[in-house]
């Protein structure tokens, strides 16, 4: 099974690219979805988060209070590291289970990881990396359209992430997403064909 890590800055279009690959029959394992599962009760992650951050971190339904946590992480320098120390080992364990469940006949699958290059353990699980990239102006515009987002928080999130230059330098492959959906779909179709050729060349 060939695994390709998909990443990019926030609001770069990773979810749209994932959907387009799925339309070509490519399975996508999204670590954000795994994190969302772990943020719903019952979950040992929630117990650890409550212990680390207090009852305000858990909402009235017993799930992670996502808006509170997002604000807290950007207001307290050590909070993000503490949250990741709780979630990342659990996400990796679930990711390994999801990878093991993929059909053996699948040529390749994408593993979507926002912190593919920054967080320990994720890069080692894939053979290639694909970055979805767009201009910071486009990224900020998309981010500000999200509920609960303001300019200060959008700027803080973008500034906290790996720079576009470094992310592109680390990537094996890059898809630019500053154009139309049609242009993006064409880029994904071309990349899909390149991966099939690469897999064919890798076969003994």
Give an overview in words:
The chain is an alpha/beta fold. It folds into two domains: 1-27 and 108-204, P-loop containing nucleotide triphosphate hydrolases (Rossmann fold), CATH 3.40.50; 35-101, no CATH class. Helices cover 52% and strands 12% of the residues. It has nine helices and five strands; from the N terminus they run βαβααααββαααβα. It has helices at 14-22, 31-38, 44-53, 66-75, 79-100, 136-144, 151-160, 164-170, 181-202, and strands at residues 2-8, 28-30, 108-112, 128-133, 173-176. Strands 2-3-1-4-5 form a five-stranded parallel β-sheet, sandwiched between helices. α2 (31-38) packs across α5 (79-100). The longest helix is centred in the middle third of the chain and has 22 residues, at 79-100. The radius of gyration is 18 Å and the shape is globular. It starts with a strand and ends with a helix. The model has no long low-confidence stretch (mean pLDDT 93).
CATH class of the largest domain: Alpha Beta
What is the CATH homologous superfamily assignment of the largest domain?
A: P-loop containing nucleotide triphosphate hydrolases
Unreliable segments of 5+ consecutive residues: none
Which CATH architecture of the largest domain would you pick?
3-Layer(aba) Sandwich
Strand order of the largest sheet: 2-3-1-4-5
Overall pLDDT level: 93
The biggest beta sheet is recorded as: 5 strands, parallel
| Whole-number tally of structural domains | 2
